[in-house]
Amino acid sequence: MTITIDNVAKTFQAHSALNGVSMEVSDGAFVALLGPSGSGKTTLLRIIAGLEFPDQGSVFFDGADVHGQPVGRRGVGFVFQHYALFRHMTVFENIAFGLRVRPRRARPSRSGIRDKVHELLKLIQLEGLEHRYPSQLSGGQRQRVALARALAIEPKVLLLDEPFGALDARVRQSLRRWLRRLHEQIHVTSVFVTHDQEEALELADRVVVMNHGKIEQQGPPDEVFHRPANAFVMEFLGNVNLFHGRIEQGKGVFGPLVLDRNGNGDLRNGDSRAARLMVRPHDLELLDHANGQPSLEAKVLRVQAAGALVRVELEAQGQFLQADISHERWRELRVAPGESVFVSPRESKVIHCVGSRGSRCGLVTCGSAAMLTPHLGQRPSASGITSVLQVRQRTVSMGPA
Q: Quick one: 400 exposed, middle or buried, by C-beta within 10 A (0-12, 13-18, 19+)?
């Protein structure tokens, strides 16, 4: 089942929840709607399901306009964040519910229902628990039951609204891996809503990043993460260190850091304009001495070696920075709190943005990292560094307050 969203808009009183959203979900795809609270992702999911109707635009299932079609006729399975299981029903009865309430002509026989439920119990790995009630299950088990109930009606489309939001981190991780394997088995066109960047990047074939009722970028996870379309996407998809500066004579000047273009694109159009250099922690290289690369001196504040990468917290020019390095590199440097090191951006991407919210951007290759060069008449900020280390799931807005 393919889903086509064409110029959909939705307003609740004075609030514009969606503003001209267009996208396509291919047959069998697993798509994530990712964005902060209030970005419009749940409203879009509910419109696909038929729980809300757009004020403008259309939704097509396999090319057929489903405007006005109620939920029951769309062939959609819906999984809610808080399970929405019937507390007075057993696991078996919860899963069988959608089959039992079908019109008599479409309703399977008792043995057919029993076989279907046992098939789904095996699929969700909860065989032997069919006589338990929801209160006797863990959070992860309840969410699996909710998913089985949605799958029992054999939906053409599976919609999931923050399905792991109510679970602790370890259970979420386990269920993410399980859900990905399940999707590879059943291959049902699926759309899920999340504000968790890691969840979206790990699960989805395609990520749709939303903000303020619009789509900021959509594409495969690696493309969205490594080639962000604008400032919002860059900041929302993970932690960043933010350096303020200017473009002068085709070079980015950020305090002692001077970055020159060394690939595709041109910085000359940004001359004498304010600029922002954005470097992810894993793209910030640590050096024990200046080696001719663009770099600045920083003081090590803290080293956190527990984990796959070593997190090094630094201070440079009075501002906080974070660098993520390998354990091997850490052992080579032997950095410790109180010591001085040199930090140098390593990635070579530049984002030229037009518009106060950086809504239209082009990619330029330059010395290191992602740089935002507004083509606006605003006064540039003083050269320096500002830390914008985003905490996961934090709401980020590049628009005016």
A: exposed
